[in-house]
Amino acid sequence: MEDRSHKVLLALVMLLLFAVIVLQYVCPGTECQLLRLRALSPAAAAADPYRAEDETPARFVPRFNFSADDLLRRVDFNIKGDDLIVFLHIQKTGGTTFGRHLVRNIQLEQPCECRAGQKKCTCHRPGKRETWLFSRFSTGWSCGLHADWTELTNCVPSVVDSKKEVRLRPSR
Questions:
Q1: Using CA atoms, how far apart are residues 60 and 31, in angstroms rounded to an integer?
Q2: Where is the signal peptide (predicted)?
């Protein structure tokens, strides 16, 4: 009888350890919504996301405090003029998906022409043979693979200006 109770106790301990391991896998952080009952309360939704629960100083302090007006501002893009969108692809941030979205899904007067089997799309301005989008999906790897900001600040103006006559170059 004593041997059987040891086996049952061992089985319960093993089950508890298994449950803890699964819980850590499914919910690794302290912000697990499954375990936090007060996360569903309206007070928790209004709480400052940068303040720790125990009121200790936050580990993450936002560097840029953008107002709602800053985030919702409207930028007028003139596809018929000299405006140019430069897409800087930062690795591992969904840039490939967003870059494809720029050339395939945006509703414009003259959308990009993407052909099956080609990675590059043609994104010309209406009535012109010049591009309005500078990205790997429209101009290719003009500034190298995953060019960083420093490289782009030197590369983009020279590549864009090399495609226009001097008298047609816009001031930047």
A1: 15
A2: 1-24
pTM, rounded to two decimals: 0.51
Q: Which range of residues forms the domain containing residue 123?
A: 75-165
Domain membership flag for residue 33? no
Question: Distance between CA atoms of 86 and 113, rounded to whole angstroms?
Answer: 18
Do the beta carbons of residue 86 and residue 132 sit within 8 Å?
Answer: no
Query: What is the C-alpha separation between 37 and 45, in angstroms, rounded?
Result: 12
pLDDT in tens, 67-120: 888 878 887 888 888 888 888 887 888 888 888 888 888 878 888 888 888 888
Question: N- to C-terminal Cα distance for the chain?
Answer: 87
Q: Residue 120: inside a domain, yes or no?
A: yes
Q: What digits encode the pLDDT tens for the residues 31-81?
A: 565 554 444 555 555 556 556 666 666 666 666 677 888 878 887 888 888
In a domain, 148, yes or no: yes
List the catalytic residues.
146
For residue 54, is it within any domain? no
Total number of domains in the chain: 1
The rounded distance, in Å, linking the Cα atoms of 68 and 50 is 17
